[in-house]
Fold these 2 entries.
Entry 1:
Amino acid sequence: MPCSCTAAHFREPDALFLQHPGGKRTKKKAEKGARRTALFDMGKYFGTDGFRGEANVTLTAEQAYRVGRFLGWYYGRAHKANVVIGKDTRRSSYMLEDALSAGLTAGGADVYLLHVTPTPSVSYVVRSENFDCGIMISASHNPFYDNGIKVINGNGYKLEAEVENKIEAYLDGELGELPTARRENIGRTVDYAMGRHRYIGYLISLATRSFSNKRIGLDLANGSATTVAKGVFDTLGAKTFVMSSEPNGLNINEDCGSTHIERLQQFVVENGLDAGFAYDGDADRCLCVDENGRVLSGDAILYLCGCYMKEHGELNNDTIVTTVMSNLGLYKALDAKGIRYEKTAVGDKYVYENMLSNGHCLGGEDSGHIIFSKHAVTGDGILTSLKIMEVMLEKKTKLSELVKELVIYPQLLKNVRVKDKEAAMKDEAVLAEVEAVSAELGADGRLLVRESGTEPLVRVMAEAATDELCEEKVGRIVRVLKERGLTEQ
């Protein structure tokens, strides 16, 4: 199946990976003002989504304390710093919250605790209430034993790379010791649950219609969404059916949420629901299930919302920002609707940087990180579900009908655990096999090989006309990685 995409419709980031829909390997310049891809952008501790690792192994309470010490000093040089902290439901989140708070207050900052809350709520509170920065303690979709520290700047989006580099230098002892606060200058912690309540009110205010008579399923992933999502849908009048809503510190993302959506698929069908929404651990991503149990991935959500926004004159520049992981089928469907698109490296921060630089208002990832820049500066799973509801209600149409013209190409993604990501990505035999497979796919498919920004993985993805072709092409790359001794046994 040839693809009708043209170079005029998208830009690709600098990368070393990829077969694009037209069948040519390219290396175009990155967007003006945007950072280079994660390959050139990752630090020693901070990856594409903050400082992430196994709690008390690669991310310790001592490190969290020092991150807090630096931020308290850095933002408090000219005035008393105010920092807001949210967390997900992992057991280690409480330890890291205490350690960060200790470091921040020792540095003179006042700390405002949102407690268990979605990542986008921290972004919202920072922006709307003039905090110097925010911190979200979460490892998103990772298992419970991992955790992360995501720092959000005063504008509500992810911290600048230059500040992350300074934090890393401090963690490695390169900046010496920082002064501590004394006497009345020592900081304090404040219970700030009201900040989360204001975020809930904001979400409710964005709904354009009542949800009455709609039967909606919510998979809360035993995570951050448990404090927000049901209350929002109940207030808007939906008949709400909830699952994975009893976090115990160990069951976040466990066989539930957006990474295990098969349970929600069954739940929606068995209960005769109009739609179901699944969030990840920190509720910044959302996937959807239609009334027949079919999954609507991030690409389908971008298509559905993009078409609706274009019809209403709300899609700036008639353009959607995607990442290189979006499906060929999405681009073909957008071509048919006269909607343009751009591509970035994987990571919602790259999507937002492109949107900000070029004035686009809708962008996201197939994983379900969707950004509506009129309302938020980061992915927001619950906001995304509200926007999908708006389209359903306005169109008076079932979800399955709204995406029937979108045909997704078969896709296969395998995560290969490697000894050294950089060595694997530079290996000559691997690069040669990537070149060969890409040439064979031509215009009828795509191969993408990239390193994970948060784990010791190389991700190998193929799109082609059949599942068998995807399996064969991905298998060839994985086999070469193993033959070269690059994988973990």
Note: The first strand starts at residue 46 and ends at 47.
Entry 2:
Amino acid sequence: MYTFSSRIRYSEVDSEGNLSLESLLDYFQDCSTFQSEDLGIGTGYLREKKMAWVLSAWQIVVERYPGLCEKVSVGTIPYGIKNFVGYRNFLMETETGERLAYANTIWTLMDMEKRKPVKAPKEMTDAYGVGERLDMDYEPRKIAIPKGEGTAREPVEIKRHHLDTNHHVNNGQYVRIAMEYLPEGHRIRQMRAEYRKQAVLGDKIYPLIYAEDMVTVVSLNNGDGEAYCVAEFKQNQESRDGN
């Protein structure tokens, strides 16, 4: 497993002084970027080959949110590359090995000129290698939209700060947008996100919110009602009980 060490910064914590989910997601994304760059198959390599890894799905489970200044280890391991689909786990632990959070992700390698999936070249698969996947409960990639009508919110226009190096909305930005519609005090135990379409500069996102007892689903749609991203948030029992 590829790892790097860090310390929780003030800019990464929420109002209670603990690492925010958005910052946890950033840590995981950065970890995979660091590994790819260190292996020589990062952004420059992909740009030269006119390829890009596009995220299809996140599943993040949080055991405990680390606090301000807490030292952590962040790791990632690719556990499978099949044709144009890649599978990657993430892990955040304390210095003493306490498991704080872990994740599963599914990626698609795209030919950015032809706008279609492309098989991962051998030099890429050899560089990454394949490890054993983490022991966790793996949820389905697809997220079901609850029955009934969702609650519509004001549209969000995509600005430059939403974009990544591929000039599409960064996958973490979708999660940030979706989290704005969570009930107050919603302490997230698990987050899943399914990415269906790519939004670009100037697009408008139309949020639809489906709130149930312990689960909130946010569908971030285009003007035709098609989802760019569907995010599901499951809260801790403690946040429901007010503890």
Note: The two ends are 35 Å apart (CA to CA).
